[in-house]
Specification:
Structural class: alpha+beta
Order of helices and strands: EHEE
Helix content: 10-25%
Number of strands: 3
Number of helices: 1
Largest sheet: 3 strands, antiparallel
Distance between the termini: 33 Å
C-alpha cells in the first residue's frame, strides 16, 4: 500500500493492543503524522515524504536470537 499510494489514512484505536505484535503496533502508531485524536482512537496521515520506516525508540528487553 505504501509503495503505490500518495496518501494513506490510518485509523488506530485502543483495541489494537491484543491483535498485533508490539513491534508492528508501534510501527503503525508512529507511521505518518498525527491529524486527530479522540477518545480511544487516533487518525494519522502518511505521505511518501514521511518515509516508510519511522524511528521507534528502543525500550530495551529484546536480546534477539542467539
Amino acid at each position: 500500500v505504501l509503495e503505490n499510494s500518495k496518501r494513506v489514512w490510518l485509523h488506530v484505536d485502543n483495541h489494537t493492543e491484543g491483535r498485533f505484535e508490539p513491534v508492528f503496533r508501534d510501527y503503525i502508531e508512529t507511521l505518518g503524522q498525527p491529524i486527530m485524536e479522540t477518545f480511544g482512537a487516533r487518525v494519522r496521515l502518511w505521505k511518501p515524504e514521511d518515509g516508510v520506516f519511522p524511528h521507534v525508540p528502543y525500550q530495551g528487553g529484546d536480546l534477539g536470537a542467539y
